[in-house]
Amino acid sequence: MRFKRKHQFGNHLAFARYRRSLTRKTVASLLGHKTTDAISRYECGEVVPSLATAMKLALIYNVPITVLLNEYFETCRQKVLERQAQVGGRTLIASNDEGDFCSVEEGLRSPDPNKVDLERAATHIRRISHFFSERTRESSGS
User: Fold this and answer.
1) Residue stretches of the chain with pLDDT short of 70
2) Under a CB-based contact definition with an 8 Å cutoff, are residues 53 and 31 in contact?
3) Which of 25, 46, 92, 124: CA 20 to 30 A from 109?
């Protein structure tokens, strides 16, 4: 008989690991764990990784924490929005339609972007354009 956990959070940890072609054993080793048990619990949403572990996972998978732990992030966001409404005052949390943080965009916003920032932006734009073109072709059935 399996007991339902009180809180289980959806996440993209397993998908990010598959995308990087990593095994649970490899990720566990990179995090300094002796077994893969914790990795399994993180991926199943049974346990939310500590901030330090989440940051390490974001580095390993090259994916922002807010994407990796999407459901947990949204739960936290909703709680802060509720508290904000109770406390009153100015709006501190951006609405979902304001867009996600983009480190490439932030690099370009600096008063004097360097050559590396400009090259990163150009590469980023090419990759997104290529991905967008592929998806557009797929959805149109061409």
Assistant:
1) 1-7, 89-90, 92-101, 142
2) yes
3) 92
